[in-house]
Amino acid sequence: MWHCLLFFLCFILHKLPRVQMEFMTDHAQSTASMISLVEMESVFIKQLDRYSDDLEWKINSMESFLDEVQLKRVPWKHTPEEYVAHPLTSFSLIRRLHEDWSHMEIFMSHHVGLDSLNKIQSILDMAKPTEQDLQDALSGIDAIQSHYDLEPTDIANGVLNGRQYNTTMTTLECLAMVKFHESNQQMHSAIGWYEAALQRYDGARDGHLYREVLNFKLSDFYGSYARALAARGLWKPALALLENVSDLHADLWLLQRQLRNLMDLHERHETYVKKDPNTETIACLGLYTPIRNRSCHYESTRTAFLRLAPLKVEMLSLDPYIAIYHDVIYEREIARVMTLALSSLKGPGRYSKRREHNIKSVTVYEEENSQLNQRTRDMTGEQVKEDKDFRIYNSGIGGYIRYHMDNLAKEEQQPGFGDYQTTIMFFLNEVPHGGAISFPQLEFTVWPRKGSALVWHNLNNNLELDYRVAHISCPVIVGSKWTLVKWLHEEHQRFT
């Protein structure tokens, strides 16, 4: 398995164009891109297990030698004169020191497990996640937290939007979130993650590994947490935190005294009042009243084919037009487009005001008269001749698209095409938790359902943007989200 993974990584690094290599490293932007990381860590686990076995063999060999030497010394442990007075023991002592200990010195200097170490180093040098990958992952967790109004302690304990999952975060992972928020000047959020980090720390479980291997100092953690609290004017919580831990290090004792003095000089004691849910939170949680006048019917009149095989339609809104068509993309079609996309998904450009976050996509080229395009005509009654292709999307950690309209700027509109008249979004898989499409102005939210398609008009009857259909693609909390999207241009629909 190791050789196959190394060959694959070498191929990726040496054969693909530079721009593709950069996209290949954007692991957090797509669940499909993260599968290789699971395989990579499996190789690491196997190699570390072998390394551990090699070390254990070396330790067992040294302990066997020690047992034998000490066994011979036990009867004369407190009387070295009697030990050397016996010819057999004195001869054994001289021979061991002349021969055996020289062999043991050579044995001790021999490095075991180098093959396993070299294999891990080779993969890390070529393909370990980058700093940008880590930042993408951190921003994804932050997106889930902010869009669903979650507490850091709940997230760290595996409680996501009211559901308990069987995975949790470590103290070091919570501290990575602290660093992320501090670098973005989000100090209140940083304090929440400090609290989660402290809650998740277990000295008996984590102490030795964190201290000796992972470069974690408990005294530094308490100091940073107390300073963060004090910076927000939370003097009493800062002092309470240090009350029972100041004996860990002299610096904590000095910090405690310094904070007491500062508290006497400052009268401000900040308190935090939790804000009401914002528009994005309400939208992604679907906190709207049920849609009135919602109806379902079979569409059988739009095209001749539908007389034989009508489509199941759920009308969400007539003005503006928004509908869900059920069971309109089939397993073989889903498998085909997802297989085509797996090797070529690309992330969006990195600029501050981009609307797509932790989402990768690629164009799926489709024949004009394919069954999927024919079904699109059946659903919309519109022409697809010049709009025959689709765009497939896969979300990564907390992947979402900001509140936006599906439209083109004037300078982006091609002659004879115009703006986007209609959007058709196929849901290719079930999403266990999150990932809804929400229309805040219309006050309803649509949850992904495999095989269905969400259809809406972006332009009104005057071919002007209908801002009522501005929408949010909410972060996926748990699971992967695959959608297949087509936009139909206005100029091609003049006679439809």
Automatic annotation (TrEMBL):
Cite the Prolyl 4-hydroxylase alpha subunit domain residue spans from the record. Answer: 320-489
Transmembrane stretches, start-end: none
Q: GO CC annotations? A: endoplasmic reticulum
Work out whether the entry's keyword set contains Transcription regulation. no
Keyword Endoplasmic reticulum included in the entry's annotation: no
InterPro entries in the cross-refs: P4H_N, P4HA-like, Pro_4_hyd_alph, Pro_4_hyd_alph_FE2OG_OXY, TPR-like_helical_dom_sf
> Hey, what's the signal peptide range on this chain?
1-21
Q: Which domain of life is it from?
A: Eukaryota
> Any idea which GO molecular function terms this record carries?
iron ion binding; L-ascorbic acid binding; procollagen-proline 4-dioxygenase activity
Q: Which SMART domains match?
A: P4Hc
Instruction: Extract the PANTHER family matched here.
Output: PROLYL 4-HYDROXYLASE ALPHA SUBUNIT (PTHR10869), PROLYL 4-HYDROXYLASE SUBUNIT ALPHA-2 (PTHR10869:SF244)
**What's the name of the protein?**
Prolyl 4-hydroxylase subunit alpha-2
